[in-house]
Amino acid sequence: MSGIQGKVVAITGASSGIGEATALLLAERGARVVLGARRAERLEALAARIGASGGEAAWTCTDVTRRADLTRLVELARDRYGRLDVLVSNAGVGPISALDDLRVEDWEQMIDVNFKGVLYGIAAALPVFREQGFGHFVNTVSTAGLRIVPLQSVYAATKNAVRTVSEGLRQEAGDSLRVTVVSPGLVRTDFADQIDPQVRARILDRLDQAGLSPDAVARAIAFAVEQPDGVDVGDIVVRPTAQS
């Protein structure tokens, strides 16, 4: 039997890309998934797709910049399924640009979604995990934080902030909780839609040539989730072989 069978997994950013692929894969392997994202119509369609394939899914509109929304997502998991085994904090934005462009509102959005959104997830799930005596945080970061390049400094900073908090959480977690960070490289998602139009064409060309399918990242997340109790997969990097 899969180590995923029967687990209750909440996923933010579940309406597309890596989050959607993760929800589909985990549900296929027997998890009961609780979907969170801002786009209600896409969540409803995804939950229906999972249900039609014999899986179990619940959903609620979730804006990770609102702490109450993360609390509601965790409560939905407990109300519907009696517990929460895993929180996958996947929601993210990346309107990258040169610092000289002074796109301060974009910087603030990345801080609010990419970093504070993960903190709000921790605040919602950690007391539940402590009460249960088990739980697993899976946080999506990025290879952008491993190799800093122009245009991505603020984006990389938010991802590295999550990496740092995740390591601190792992050390504080004790022997009953698990913490995993997954660092995807180039992935074919709608990420490029948020990018400065002056650099979008270049990014799209790179994605077309070397981008991974979101399914590749979903499989990495599934690998961490399916490990037996007492096995903590701390850090996974998933990048195209062609990516430097």
Q: What characteristics describe this protein?
A:
single chain; 244 residues; alpha/beta; seven-stranded parallel β-sheet
Question: Outline of this structure?
Answer:
The protein is 47% helix and 16% strand. The protein is α/β, with parallel strands linked by helices. Strand 5 (135-140), helix 5 and strand 6 (177-184) form a beta-alpha-beta unit.
Can you describe this structure?
The protein has 7 helices and 7 strands, in the order E-H-E-H-E-H-E-H-E-H-E-H-H-E. Strands 3-2-1-4-5-6-7 form a 7-stranded parallel beta sheet, sandwiched between helices. Helix 1 (17-28) links the parallel strand 1 (8-12) and strand 2. The chain has 244 residues and is α/β, with parallel strands linked by helices. The radius of gyration is 17 Å and the shape is globular. It holds the Pfam family adh_short. Keywords: Oxidoreductase. This is SDR family oxidoreductase. Belongs to the short-chain dehydrogenases/reductases (SDR) family. InterPro entries: NAD(P)-bd_dom_sf, Sc_DH/Rdtase_CS, SDR_fam.
Please describe the topology of this protein.
Layout: E1 8-12, H1 17-28, E2 32-37, H2 40-52, E3 56-61, H3 67-81, E4 86-89, H4 104-132, E5 135-140, H5 153-172, E6 177-184, H6 197-210, H7 214-225, E7 235-238
Structural class by sheet pairing and helices:
alpha/beta
Mean pLDDT: 92
Biggest sheet details: 7 strands, parallel
- Got a strand count? 7
Strand order of the largest sheet: 3-2-1-4-5-6-7
Tell me the series of helices and strands, N- to C-terminal: EHEHEHEHEHEHHE
Shape: globular
Low-confidence stretches: none
Alpha plus pi helix count: 7
Helicity range: 40-55%
- How large, in whole angstroms, is the Cα Rg? 17 Å
| Distance linking N and C termini | 38 Å
Report the portion of residues in β strands. 15-25%
Pfam families: adh_short
Keywords: Oxidoreductase
Family: Belongs to the short-chain dehydrogenases/reductases (SDR) family.
Protein name: SDR family oxidoreductase
